[in-house]
Amino acid sequence: MRLLNGDSGLLGVGSGVRRRGWGRAMTLVELVIALAITAIVAAVLAILIDATAVGTSSNNDGRRGLTRMQAMKAQLGDAFANARCILAVDATHVVYWVGDVAGAPTPANGAVNFSELRMLELDTTTGSLNLYTCQWPSGYSTASIIAADQTYAAGSDWLSAAQAAKGTGNYPATLVAGNVTGITACLDSASPTQAHLIQLRVDIDDGSTPRSVIIGAALQSQAAPM
Question: Strand, helix or coil at 169?
Fold first, then answer.
């Protein structure tokens, strides 16, 4: 009986040793599994955080793009509404006359002067939509301005006149919008100088989402130049 008890005790001791060794092996496996799970969770969180950051950046870019388009729409809508006459349009240009300007050095004459000529032009190479306006050098005297302020004949080729004005140095461009892929101007008259309504579509592609802006305006004081 003692021998059996002794054997049982030995078995108990041996069994206990085996149980303690197996316990250490399980702890190591569990640690490895826990580390693997932690790594997976961390990777998933990193992906989610990155996706959130990208989404936020994309939303911010979209809002900035919409703000710029609204600003362009307001700028051109106001310019057309206050224009005296649309002079010429084609696939990349809108040429218009602002009319005689009260208080300007050049006396009112009912004709288009250089200082009153405007040209909206799409540069198809750069995608820039530019507005060309007259700007006299600083310090120009009234007499100098009147002498340089060319008066155009009523039947002038307005697009050619505006293109020629670009070479004078007094007709700088102001950027209205970038990433423009096309413009389309529609008038309510086959003759631009008789048009009272203008609708301009501006197509923009900034590499994310192509958009189109429609600008419509009624000329408030339309009159053809004399």
Answer: coil
CA–CA distances in Å: residue 14 to residues 7, 8, 165: 10, 10, 105
Contacts 24+ apart (CB under 8 A), 155-159: 156/112, 157/88, 158/87, 158/88, 158/95, 158/112, 158/117, 159/88, 159/90, 159/93, 159/95, 159/119
Average pLDDT taken over every residue of the chain: 86
* Rounded distance between C-alpha atoms, residue 144 and residue 44, angstroms: 71
DSSP 82: T
Nearest to 165 by CA among 90, 114, 106: 114
Q: Output the six-digit token pair for 222.
A: 């339309």
CA distance 220 to 141: 32
Identify each DSSP E strand in the chain by its residue range.
85-89, 93-97, 117-123, 128-132, 173-177, 180-187, 197-204, 211-218
Convert 49-78 to b/e letters by CB count within 10 Å (16 or more is b): eeeeeeeeeeeeeeeebeebbeebbeebee
210/13 Cα distance (integer angstroms):
79
In this predicted structure, what is the pLDDT of residue 11? 42
Q: Residue 94 has which token pair? A: 């809108």
CB 77 within 8 A of CB 217: yes
Q: Is the pLDDT of residue 199 over 70?
A: yes
* Amino acid identity at 201: R
